[in-house]
Design goal:
Oligomer: single chain
Largest sheet: 4 strands, parallel
Radius of gyration: 16 Å
Number of helices: 4
Helix content: 40-55%
Strand order of the largest sheet: 2-1-3-4
Mean pLDDT: 89
Low-confidence stretches: 134-149
Distance between the termini: 41 Å
Length: 149
C-alpha cells in the first residue's frame, strides 16, 4: 500500500472523534491511512499545528469538529474555521495546494458521515498526489517569475 497518502485528522473529542469511534462500532470502514489526533476542541487547532503536519510529511490534513452552534466550547469550531481558511491561504503562498487541507463538520451521531468524508478526502489527496504536486509546483514557479501576469 505504498500509494496510500498520509492523512492527519485533528478531531474534536466530543463530536468528530466520537463519530469516528461510532463508524468503527457500526463497522463502517474508512481508510486506514487516516491518523486521528484527538483534541479537546477544534478551536485548539492553530495554523502552526496544521503547517507542522505538512512539514512532517502529511499529504493531507483534515480538521473535523462540531456543527455550527453545537460546540461544547461555544465558539471553538468557528475559530477553527477561520484558522483553517488562513492556513489554506498560507499553504497556497508556499506552493502547496490548499485543497490538501479541509474542515468538516461531523456530529457525534454521524459515524457513517465520518467514514464517507474520510474516504472522499483520501481520494482527493490521491488525485492530488498523482498530478497535483507537479501542477502546484509549476503554478508556484509561474507566479514567482515577476512578470506581473
Amino acid at each position: 500500500m505504498e500509494n496510500e497518502p498520509t492523512i492527519i485528522a485533528f478531531c474534536c473529542h466530543y463530536c468528530a472523534f466520537t463519530a469516528a469511534d461510532l463508524a468503527g462500532t457500526m463497522r463502517k470502514q474508512y481508510p486506514t491511512n487516516i491518523r486521528i489526533v484527538r483534541i479537546p476542541c477544534t478551536g485548539k487547532v492553530d495554523e502552526n499545528m496544521v503547517l507542522q503536519a505538512f512539514v512532517e510529511g502529511a499529504d493531507g490534513v483534515m480538521v473535523a469538529g462540531c456543527e455550527i452552534g453545537s460546540c461544547h466550547f461555544i465558539q471553538g469550531n468557528v475559530r477553527a474555521l477561520k484558522r483553517v481558511a488562513h492556513a489554506k491561504k498560507l499553504l497556497g503562498e508556499t506552493g502547496v495546494n490548499p485543497d490538501r487541507l479541509e474542515f468538516y463538520h461531523v456530529a457525534a451521531s454521524q459515524g457513517p458521515l465520518f467514514a464517507t468524508t474520510s474516504a472522499e478526502f483520501t481520494e482527493r489527496i490521491k488525485q492530488l498526489n498523482a498530478g497535483g504536486k507537479a501542477s502546484a509546483d509549476a503554478a508556484s514557479a509561474e507566479g514567482s517569475t515577476g512578470d506581473g501576469q
